[in-house]
Amino acid sequence: MRYDKDQAAAEFTRWSESYDRSVLQWMLFGPSHRVLIRRVAAVAGNRPFRLLDVGCGTGLFAARLKAALPQAQVCGVDLVSGMLSRGRPRWQYHARDVFPVQGDSERLPFGSGTFDFVTCANSFHHYPQQDRAVVEMQRVLRAGGRLLLIDGYRDAPWGWFIYDVCVTAREGDVHHASARRFRDLMTRAGLQAIAQKVFRGFAPFLLSEGIVPESIPSIPAPHFRVRDNVSSAVDA
After folding, report:
1. What is the per-residue pLDDT across 114-132, written as a single tens digit (0 to 9) for each?
2. pLDDT in tens, 164-179
3. What's the CA gap between 134 and 147, in Å, rounded?
4. Which numeric CATH code is attached to 5-211?
5. In 3D, which of 80, 12, 78, 69 has the Cα closest to residue 40?
6. How many beta carbons lie within 10 A of that of residue 221, not counting itself?
7. Backbone angles phi and psi of 125, in degrees to 5
8. What number is the average pLDDT over the span 206-214?
9. All residues at 6 or more sequence positions from 69 whose CB lies less than 8 Å from its CB, including other chains
10. Are 48 and 163 within 8 A, CB to CB?
11. Share of the chain above pLDDT 90, in %
12. Dist CA 14 CA 11 (whole Å)
């Protein structure tokens, strides 16, 4: 059976109770978050910026980014309300500058050109329509904005075993894209200057980065409601 959003939502709802204590925090999530923070810092410098983290979970990356780069304004979007609820203490601590929103990666509830950066770390393989998700991430970036996308690197034998064998046996028919597919998805979405870097280790991962051209055609308004002012999805 084809992996779908209902399966993803059910899986992450179950996982939300133990997500912050998962061994993957040490093996994969922590290292990939550090890579993203270094890359954002290298591009942004000391300038203020707005960043959207797609598949934000309980807000660990958002909190780490804010601690490292105080000038950031961060919005996190996640399909699963349970993940956002488990992160309530983080959202409350950073209430002025970090905003959680429940939403779908394929129908992001934000206006076009809202963000300087969009990040997505270790959740992309759960998206049934990956091409649509990348188009949406591009849409909400301003001209010159950057998409930074991390997922498991499955193009070498060890990564293939970890992600295409072990992970799919546990999580179902999820799809870890190859490096070539990431490049194709970004190119078709209109991103340019695409760069990729592999990070080796027990759980190897791939960073793919693309830039929205400075001159892009006008993007039609989406056919669903967007948020012009970022707002919280959990109680203060």
Report:
1. 999 999 999 999 998 999 9
2. 999 888 777 889 999 9
3. 9
4. 3.40.50.150
5. 69
6. 9
7. -70, -10
8. 96
9. 37, 40, 41, 44
10. no
11. 63
12. 5
Polymer length in residues for the chain: 236
Residue 34 is encoded by which pair of tokens?
Answer: 């550090």
Name the residue with tokens 């760069």: 195
SS3 for 40?
A: helix
Residue 136 is encoded by which pair of tokens? Answer: 């949406």
Contact 195, 35 (CB under 8 A): no
Q: Which residue has the tokens 């949406």?
A: 136
Which helix H or strand E contains 131, and what residues bound it? helix 130-139
- The whole-angstrom distance between residue 50's C-alpha and the CA centroid of its chain comes to 14
Q: Which two tokens stand for residue 35?
A: 């890579």
| Sequence letter at residue 33 | H
**% pLDDT > 70, the chain:** 80
